[in-house]
Amino acid sequence: MKKLSLLLVFLIVLTGSHVYAENAKSENIKIGSVDLIKALNESDAGKKAKSDLEFMIKSKQSSLDEKGKNIEKIKTELEKQSSVLSADARKSKEEELEKMIRDYQRLVSDSQNEVKKKEGELTAEIIKELRGIIEKIGSEEGYTVILEGGEGQILFAKKEIDITDTVLKKHNELKAKSKK
Question: How many domains does one find in the chain?
Fold first, then answer.
């Protein structure tokens, strides 16, 4: 049974490759690749999005640093005063410090999630635009297939089939036109 199914698969592949070869003779095959990550990072819109994210991260980081310093200050004061404080007062201060630390950790987590969400929103829009441009280039320039080559999905490709720079140029032109 196993040999029969293996033979069947082999015959299907052989027949499919023969049909493909016949079609390839009658039609020129044109293949391209695009590094979407490079296009995203090097496009004008991608650079602006990266800059906006860095600004957002720095502003959140300065706020977090301030709260962190405040926690350290209270922690130091508690350590200095622990010998002179009553047990109830020390316990109260420790609970207050623990609450501040939990709030700080929650704030860090919320900030990280907010940055990730914003990054996702910004990159999703640019990727959508890039895919539209790739589709247009593929249609207008007669490509049979355009593959994504940035994430290791293409193990080898000649540099001549890489159209990333063309996509970048068209995307930047499109963005420049839309600003006017």
Answer: 1
